[in-house]
Amino acid sequence: MFSKIYWLYNLAPSLPLQEDFVYHWKAITHYYIETSDDKAPVTDTNIPSHLEQMLNILTQEERERESGETGPCMEYLLHHKILETLYTLGKADCPPGMKQQVLSFYTKLLGRIRQPLLPHINVHRPVQKLVRLCGEVLAAPTGNEEIQFLCTVCAKLKQDPYLVNFFLENKNKKLEAAKDGGADLVKKDPSSPDTGQNQKQNPSLVTSALKEAAACQATSPGEASPSSVHTTLPNSDNYNLVSSLLNLTKSPVSLALIQFKILCICRLDVYNLKEDAVAFAGKRALISFLSWLDYCDQLIKEAQKTAAAVLARAVRERFFVAIMEPQLMQTSEVGILTSTALLNRIIRQVTSEALLQETIYFLLGEETGPETPAGITQHPLRHRLIEHCDHLSDEISIMTLRLFEHLLQKPCQHILQNLVLRCLEERNYMENKQPEEREEREHMENGQPHDAVDLEEDPLFSDLSPDNRLSSPDWLSCSPPPSTEHTKPDGKTEVHKIVNSFLCLVPDEAKSSYQVEGTGYDTYLRDAHRQFRDYCGVCQRWDWRSSPKPFEKCNLDSPFFEGHFLKVLFDRMGRILDQPYDVNLQVTSVLSKLSLLPHAHLHEYLLDPYINLAPGCRSLFSVIVRVVGDLMLRTHRIPDFTPKLLLVRKRLLGLEPEGMSVDHVTLLEGVIVLEEFCKELAAIAFVKFHASTSTSP
């Protein structure tokens, strides 16, 4: 009977929009009165078609009217509390599948209608109730619709941030909604979803909704002002939108259906069970987790600022603190390695500012004041991670060093401030009085080593575009001070000394790169230039010193502590001749990243060979000098040192096949890494100097 009436209606002449709209709504309500079979799915009825027609009418009405003007169809929807009734029907899921239809209707209504709807009390109240309904059942068939609905609400909040106030709710007033029809029975804790797979229909909810609809239809339109805007902001201390979103993130079904950008990890687009078994156990779970993470990250990136901060904080507390921290703090080497590898992947994947900040605070803490030896355990996780850089397990050391390397490349000033800069702020690694003359300077002026490079006319830097130059040239004003007698007008004599100080650190008898084509110092220049340009682009918006802090303003009498992070790096650098090749590569990679940063104190401490260190202090240059001193003592005890060194280098480059084992291979590989690292530091020093002088007037 119902389908016959609808078929006859389609053949009838078109009615005015309001009559048409009312017809479709009454057809839906009459279904509940006339139909006794409440088990037939909603797709077997005409309810979806009527709802779609109502949406089309509302869209057409808005299109035909002036911007911002509310038409009679929208007035009818607001005044008769149609959204409230639909919410009740959706909550009861009667007929089966009605919840999906209601979610879809809400989503399309909010997405298609341009005029602001959420400020209306008869819109934001049922929307808020529907938000609470989302995520109550894990792996529900409505997961896709729930996510689309919540994302639409988030988009509206981002568009008009003041609307957030309508979604902040006092926990003590959750039962207040029951007064509006007795239909919204809220769970005590909306953040704890029901894990059941089925919901029983509640006929009383449907009856209540129909009674309310009948009462609204009997009310004269003049008795209320349907277009009035509800401006009273609720007393707020609970954010149900965030709770529902977090609940949905626990559902693997929902994750597969989200409309956000999902990273193509491990060829997710062609995933199959056979491939999963061949790769490794747990691959599917890992993909689901990374998809969940990307969902959270993208959601936070797109969300309104307040909502993003709340959601990011919740991810930190519920995932990082509750789940990740115990894994990272465990003593099992396999567990440490696995959790650190996962953390590496997380750091690389997170791009939203709010979630990155919470992740960094979780890992490093929020401290920015001077670090002391007694205070390095103040943040246990930070202390443990830094200690893992010098772990007995080389695999754990490499993985953790790689973690910090990824951290140093993230656009977050707090990372660098927390790890290194706060220890260098007072420049108390230097003595108060600077010597007027230095033997090193005299040595560099009187002689050049065989591999010293003339950098004045280097073609790589002869034509730098303004975009690739630093905005301020002052940050590089480190010692030695310019000499009026020996320095050229462009100041490049001084950079020769700095560059050649690094190039000459390794003695000639311990060098092997000059015997292999394509391994000279110049090979590092292009990489250094590109990386430094990228770092400058990231750091320009940070409030960093363009020049060193004046000595008269520094507290040089306070004891210097290089900080836990630099201490571990320097300790490992000091053992470069006795460590595995892969460990050395990772240690020098982290130190080179630090050296590239355009901060005056960091540049002075890591790249200036001429600073006069305070007693008991060390710099990167002084650490390497000690390594070279140890090397000189040990090379004389190794027969055929130079031929063996060249053979090992060629094998590392793949120029020689693996053959008989070479004794002292760890030391020989360490010497090769040391030579290459010194060349890299020389290239970085020159690139940074050139970038500063090229912008000078």
UniProtKB/TrEMBL annotation:
Q: Which ranges are annotated Basic and acidic residues under compositional bias? A: 181-191, 432-445
The UniProt record lists the FHF complex subunit HOOK-interacting protein C-terminal domain at 562-654
Spell out the Polar residues composition-biased ranges: 192-204
The source's domain of life comes to: Eukaryota
The segment annotated Disordered runs over 181-204, 432-492
The text of the family note is: Belongs to the FHIP family.
Q: What is this protein called?
A: Family with sequence similarity 160 member B1
Q: What is the lineage of its organism?
A: Eukaryota, Metazoa, Chordata, Craniata, Vertebrata
